[in-house]
Amino acid sequence: MDAFFLLIAISVVFVIFIGGFLFWSVLSGQFDNVQEHARSILEDDDSLNTKK
């Protein structure tokens, strides 16, 4: 039974850390414009940066 309480305590700590990281990423602007980065990969023009 002691191991059960230990596992519950560890899982609560993990949930708090995951929630904190998610809260931090939302506040820091990680999810503001997700489509721009996906579009920039597809529209990248590598022909201008090639050196011979």
Automatic annotation (TrEMBL):
Work out whether the entry's keyword set contains Acetylation. no
Record keywords: Membrane, Transmembrane, Transmembrane helix
Q: Where are the transmembrane segments?
A: 6-27
Q: Does the keyword Transmembrane apply?
A: yes
Question: Out of the domains of life, which is the source?
Answer: Bacteria
Q: What's the name of the protein?
A: Cbb3-type cytochrome oxidase assembly protein CcoS
Q: Organism source for this protein? A: Pelistega ratti
